[in-house]
Model the fold of this input.
Amino acid sequence: MEKLTAKEMEVAIFVAKGYKNEDIVEEIHVSRRRVNAIIANIKLKWCVESRVEIGVLAYHFGLYTLDRLDLPSPKRIIY
Done:
């Protein structure tokens, strides 16, 4: 399993918190295409296939904690 770059870690945290790609674009000010590429790189490096798996590993590796105050607004969460 490869280490993530700083930008990949940032995106992994947003994915883990349930942010949609378009909301990640707004947060980190890159193109939608770039966000898609970053997520694909994370999946490749971590050998996972889904956003849920990214979230589980991000939590496991301590990239974020489950803090209710740090969750996105309901309109930004993917259900």
Remarks:
- The helical segments are 6-16, 21-28, 32-46, 51-60.
- The CA atoms of residues 25 and 75 lie 15 Å apart.
- The chain has a mean pLDDT of 88.
- The chain is about 55% helix and 0% strand.
